[in-house]
Amino acid sequence: MRSFAQPQLSSDKWWAQMLPLLSQQAGVAYQSTDPSQIPAHQVTGTAIVLPGSTDVSLIVQVPTDVGPYNVTLIRASASAPWLADRIRPAQG
Amino acid sequence: MAKQGGLAAAAIVVLPLFMVGTLVAGILLIFGPAQQAGACGPGVSVDVTQTPKAPVAGYSGDQLIDAAHIMNAASALGLDRAAQIVGVMTAMGESGLHVLDHGDTAGPDSRGLFQQRDNGVWGSLSDRMDPTISSTNFFTALQRVNGWEALAPTIAAHRVQGNADPYYYEQFYADSATVVGTLAGKGVTVCQSGYLVFPLGPGYQMTSNYGPRGYITEGASLWHAGDDLQHYPNPCHDPVFAITDGIVTVLAGYQLSIKSPDGYTVSYLHMYLGEVLVKVGEQVSAGQQVGATGSNGPSTGCHLHLAINVAGNTNPAIANLPRSEAIGGPIGFVDPEQFYEAFGLTLCAPDSCRRT
Description:
The complex is a heterodimer.
Chain A: H1 11-18, H2 24-30, E1 48-49, E2 57-62, E3 69-74, E4 83-89
Antiparallel strand pairs in A: 1-2, 2-3, 3-4
Chain B: H1 17-30, H2 62-76, H3 81-95, H4 125-128, H5 131-143, H6 153-161, H7 173-183, E1 205-208, E2 211-212, E3 223-224, E4 226-230, E5 239-241, E6 246-252, E7 255-259, E8 265-269, E9 283-284, E10 289-292, E11 304-309, H8 316-319, E12 333-334, H9 336-342
Antiparallel strand pairs in B: 1-4, 2-3, 4-11, 5-10, 6-7, 6-9, 7-8, 8-11, 11-12
Helix pairs in contact in B: 2-3, 2-5, 3-6, 3-7
């Protein structure tokens, strides 16, 4: 989330930081995202894990300067690194 | 409306070409022959003077005329109904289907149905305010997105619009499909989207629905937290399709569970594990075959028990559905039929699905 919320970076630098943190589907989805358009600029507190978490998929809610973001994390197994699948402003 | 900006992204190419090729190849693999979602059909044109008088999915009057202009711009370019749905969905997200003469904080210079910016890519102010010209420019940009047909509709829209949130347009898909289907004049034939598809091939019946029920068999619950679906008279070894994207989180006993990126979990029960095609930790796509119907566990015959648990759900359309514990059931489930309704689809349509 800290890598995501860096609107001051160039698209190339932002993507170079983001791509290793993303799942394959997120790599497709977030391609052509302009970091300067991302409203969040800063993480402002401690993330919480939402109910329904599992060994291979969970959602953390991260407070930012523009409100909470939900970050869906996935991994192929309990020993694999977590990857971000979606990074979205909390809806509703 | 248009909370996120519509920045032209045409100039932003950030992935090396070989990586794009790898990603596209990955998508083509995912959408292999066992894909359940069907094509939407040709993009018919619409008489803009004959749009419905009554609201459609909450849109009415000039909004429906603008939707017709968008559809006609797509069909004039030879694009199909899937493209029409992407166009109307995008305009719903950007402008609420109004020809806006103002922008927003993300783009103060954005104008029109698609909130196209004053950066030279989208033509003059009058072009951007013209429903047909702005739509044509949107679709021309969409056609330049390599392999857009294989992308989820919201991602295809994002590639053109450069939204801050690639998934922003997903929430407008169901309404767009309804409006396009209605204006096309063939009734509300909703295309199965990349977001939600049916778990069995067409023509299944529902043998037990959601809610309290009597004694069935040893171990079967008296409060049925899902729907039982099957094809009669050959209900066994029938392909079962993932209804949404997600990660396989449980594969044990007679249960396969897949957790959506939106947090809710869809469970598919009574398959024999030897016939399940996915493993825990595997990423699956909506419409991908995950196994075949069986009669494993407390069951009196081959069928699919489809259950949806909303613990950890982040999708507001789903969060509003009544939960099972509020009506005397176990904790955390919603009615699968109401779940499909929230996406504009009918799980057990009267003309194709018999209730027994």
